[in-house]
Amino acid sequence: MAVRLETDYRKVLIYDEMTSPDVAEAAAANAPVIVALGAMEHHGGHLPLATDTYQGLDMGRRASALLAKEGIPLIVGPAIPFGPPPFLSETPRPMPGTITVSNDTLRALLQDVCKSLIRHGFRRIYLLLANVESEFAMHIVAKELTETTDANIVVLNWLIGIRPKYKGMLVSDKPQGHGGEGETARMLATAPHLVRMEEARPYHPNLPLEPEVYGDFLPYLGGAIGRYRFDRDEFRGMFDGISDGITGDPQLATPETGEKSYALIAEWIASVVRFDLRP
């Protein structure tokens, strides 16, 4: 088993573990808060339903630990454990276990959570994308609250933020998606006792060889087109043979790859916070 990278988590501020006076003191010190948006969603037979939430919380903890070494407090706020229905490109048919909320419900919930933090005195809140379907609600809430309060709400999409350095980190040379090598590797680093590697199965959709136009992939990956229906001739048969909603090669995942991935994500998050807190 890989040894977890040495990180002093004793200095990490976890909102759930703080007392009311702790919160008042942190808000008075102008500490930022990071809130991960996770999900309760199927991740095949090898990963738990709360995989996205686990990852989001660990990303926040690791970024907080990095910043704590520099004397910068970043509070790891409570995660939002539910997200909207999955994209058809990740879940072409219903899978047992998934619990979803509507985009309107998520937006209202997230707005209320942020308003509570603002009432307590926090003025910088980072919304961390841990479940891709939640990105749209995140942006709406961040924009509206930043415009109507004196707080600054920032959305963090690490999938795009780390892309230049992430390429080549995985073993597989094929695209990795939902429950694939990347997610599985991170869960092996975060909660190996919840990963059932004996159940990991590879699957790759039959993607069109040539996109119709440049940027024809989902916005959360930086695409220029939001395409949510796959009934054109080019997409017919794309999900033939899919059994558990996983895309990629989870059997190739290792905890070492997960640690490297987390280190890259945590440093990217920390770099954003450092930049924002500069005088």
DSSP helical segment count? 8
Helix content: 25-40%
Give the spatial strand order of the biggest sheet. Answer: 1-3-2-4-5
Give me the count of strands: 5
- Roughly what is the average pLDDT, rounded to an integer? 90
Strand content: 5-15%
Structural class: alpha/beta
In N-to-C order, the SSE pattern is: EHEHEHEHEHHHH
Which parts are unreliable, with pLDDT below 50 for 5 consecutive residues or more?
1-6
* Biggest beta-sheet profile: 5 strands, parallel
Globular, elongated, flat, extended or rod-shaped: what is the shape?
Answer: globular
Radius of gyration: 19 Å
Helix-strand layout with pairing:
Blueprint: E1 13-14, H1 20-28, E2 33-37, H2 51-68, E3 75-76, H3 103-119, E4 124-129, H4 135-148, E5 152-156, H5 158-161, H6 163-166, H7 181-190, H8 255-276
Parallel strand pairs: 1-3, 2-3, 2-4, 4-5
Helix pairs in contact: 2-7, 2-8, 3-4, 7-8
What can you see in these coordinates?
This protein has 279 residues and is α/β, with parallel strands linked by helices. The protein has helices at 20-28, 51-68, 103-119, 135-148, 158-161, 163-166, 181-190, 255-276; strands spanning 13-14, 33-37, 75-76, 124-129, 152-156. It has a 5-stranded parallel β-sheet with strand order 1-3-2-4-5. Helix 2 links the parallel strand 2 and strand 3 (75-76). Helix 2 (51-68) crosses helix 7 (181-190), helix 2 (51-68) packs across helix 8 and helix 7 crosses helix 8. It is globular and about 55 Å long. The termini are far apart. Residues 1-6 have low confidence and may be disordered.
